[in-house]
Amino acid sequence: MAIKVVERRPLSLAERTYLPQILAGLKVTWANMLRPPVTLQYPEERPAIPTGYRGVPTLVRDPNGREKCVSCQLCEFVCPPKAIRITPGAIAADAPNAHVEKAPQEFEINMLRCIYCGLCQEVCPEEAIWLQSQYSMTGTSREMMVNNKAKLYELGGTLPDGHYKWDRKKAEAERQAHGGH
Amino acid sequence: MEQLLKDFLLSKAWYFIAARGLTAIVILMSIAAYAVLLERKASAWIQGRVGPNRTNHPLIAWIPFLGTFLQKGGFIQPAADGLKFLFKEDPLPGHVRKTTYVLAPIVALAPALLSLVMLPFGRLPTGEVITLCPGADIGVLFMFAISSLGVYGIALAGWSANSKYPFLGAVRGSAQLISYELAMGLSVLTVFLATAAPGQDNPLSLVAMVDGQQGAWNVLCHPVAALIFLICIFAEANRHPFDMPESETDLVGGFHTEYGSFKFGLFFVAEYGHMVIGSSLFILMFLGGWHFLPWLPTVGTGYVAALFGAAWFFAKLVAFLFFFVWVRWTIPRFRYDQVMRIGWRVLLPVAVLNLLAYFLWYAIKG
Ligand code: SF4
Ligand code: SF4
Hints:
Bound molecules: iron/sulfur cluster
Order of helices and strands of chain B: HHHHHHEEHHHHHHHHHH
CATH class of one domain in chain A: Alpha Beta
Number of strands of chain B: 2
Strand content of chain B: under 5%
Number of strands of chain A: 5
Helix content of chain B: 55-70%
CATH architecture of one domain in chain A: 2-Layer Sandwich
Largest sheet of chain A: 3 strands, antiparallel
Oligomer: heterodimer
Order of helices and strands of chain A: HHEHEEHEEHH
Largest interface: A-B, 14 and 14 residues
Distance between the termini of chain B: 57 Å
Structural class of chain A: alpha+beta
């Protein structure tokens, strides 16, 4: 195999004075100075958040307005820094969604603990908890940094649902009750 | 003795001296403050940022247009920076040598103030020179002598801090000053030999030098001397690429590692003061001082011309300070051994050769 020996040229006199290089550098920085700045003036200008961004975890409702969380507490157990605290509760027997049986009575995510890992979203069997586009959580006390259930639903809003799992279960149950298979 | 002191305190001269001293301090402080702003803004522009554009005072923000302009330009920022230095806690670490520790910032700032007083800014139509200390055209030797005393501040700071990094910084600073002082002196010698008229009573006068540059600037006649002097003032002012005593990457903060609050602020002002003095000397000796551009006639007559002269000087000073900043944000710092090599093995021989060449040329010309 032919080996090509690259000639290592000693520095020329001009190069050894550093001056041409310095002048070239000054030219580069001058050109940079004339370019518009890339700074985003943050509080007034906000960055565009890409879809799929994993910001503050929130709770969501399905398009029918049903709260999706069934307080199975999987997220509470998986959460590495133990940021989630759930108080499970029962759904009243006369509620339209009584067949779901359980819903959280209180749901708290301590944003001082949360590390935005997304494990809660990954583990949730109901697709009820989502890390959405809110990237800035601020507060002036520790209490303000704990998102309670009301706040979580306010942040989460409604997300489209592909399954309507509980509606289908209800329809199936009713069909069977009417003697079908 | 008592009578003398009483007379002195009661005489008008005292107030004038005090007023002048205050003026010098105010001028230096404000120039330093706005040089810092220039540094922050220019570095931001070079790096594609905006720089300070938030600080404002409600009373100023209330003025339409001007208020917004001042805020966007960051013109209120220096006031905030200065106040911050003033109101911060002033710690006195337990392990320092107290007397020298307190003395060092003062020793660093005093020479800067002292040489500022002697700088000529322009010329009145009556022939008087505009300066803070009229009638004392001591010349360039005094400037060199006093401004290099500034290194005592650095040396004392490094010594008194009683820890490794400041000490290394101080040693570097002193070595650097000694290395570059020689080349600096030799380089300007040619200029003074060329411009001083035979039989002139003050051949090292800066004013006479500026008067001699009505036509061609010295930078055109003595480019080598100008280049050496330029490099040396960068080194003397401890600016990039020669900021050996500070070099925050390898020495934490160099000589002022152990300093905080207003004492650190004084070092800061002293550094910018040295920049101002170095640039002024360069402008006076090589860039025509208060003359507009080479070969151009003076604008206006009488006091208008004097005013324009001072304005040209100031404009050149601002441009030169910008050059300092521009260089700083362009090139990296030299290594310490490179600094020594450039000083002793390049600049000094070149300066000597330049002087010899000038002698030869002078001998041939006759
Ligand atoms: S959010 Fe999901 S994982 Fe967590 S309790 Fe509710 S249903 Fe279970
Ligand atoms: S994102 Fe991670 S840390 Fe935050 S609540 Fe969910 S599981 Fe816990």
